[in-house]
Amino acid sequence: MKQLQNNRLNKRIKLCIWTIIIGLFLSGITAFPIETQLTWFLKHQPELNPTLSLWLNKVYTGVKNTNNQYPFISYGTDWLAFAHVMLAVLFIGPLINPVRNIWVVQFGIIAALAIFPLAFIAGSIRSIPFFWQCIDCSFGVVTLAILLPCYKWIKQLEATA
Predict the structure, then answer these.
(1) Neighbours of 151 (CB within 10 A)
(2) I want to staple 101 with a disulfide (CB 3.0 to 4.6 A). Which of 32, 51, 93, 152 is the partner?
(3) Spatial CB neighbours of 111, under 8 Å, sequence gap ≥ 6
(4) Residue 49's closest CA among 125, 124, 132?
(5) What number of CA atoms fall less than 13 Å from residue 18's CA on the CB side?
(6) How many degrees, rounded to 5, is the angle at CA 134 between CA 85 and CA 30?
């Protein structure tokens, strides 16, 4: 019975961790071709909220002009992408041994919570529209919705060991 319960906990934990790994990896690799993605999206966008459409056009113009005049600025985005991929690699630890590497999940929870002040403070300073700040915060909400139960299950697994 205990072994069956541990197997269920391990499956749930692995599903959570894989979801985080895939999300971080995709966030990373999609940050590299940002201008190309914006070009494609603006050409194929459905009828969007006019505010969102105006914002995306403004972002595209900013990215395109920056890449044309100051391509080295996008090097910062490259490092952001790299950091996301490396964070995905970090989560391999709890995938292999969740109890020993619970600190990675704790780190992920702290990072998810830290999204909120960053989005609202830096977003306001950088004139990011409030709706976009909320979209950024949604990544924190989703991550917390995955990692908080995962943390609980790891603690349950630890208690049965």
Answers:
(1) 20
(2) 93
(3) 87, 143
(4) 132
(5) 6
(6) 25
- The pTM for the full model equals 0.90
Residue type present at position 144? L
Q: What CA–CA distance (Å, rounded) separates 91 from 94? A: 6
Euclidean distance between CA atoms 117 and 113, whole angstroms:
8
Domain parsing of the chain, residue ranges: 2-93+101-160
3-state SS class at 16: helix
**In this predicted structure, what is the pLDDT of residue 66?**
95
Asked if residue 109 lies in contact with residue 147, where contact means CB atoms within 8 angstroms, the answer is yes
- The rounded distance, in Å, linking the Cα atoms of 84 and 90 is 10
pLDDT tens per residue across span 47-56 = 767 888 888 8
* 26-73 residue pLDDT tens: 999 999 999 999 998 888 776 767 888 888 899 999 999 999 999 999
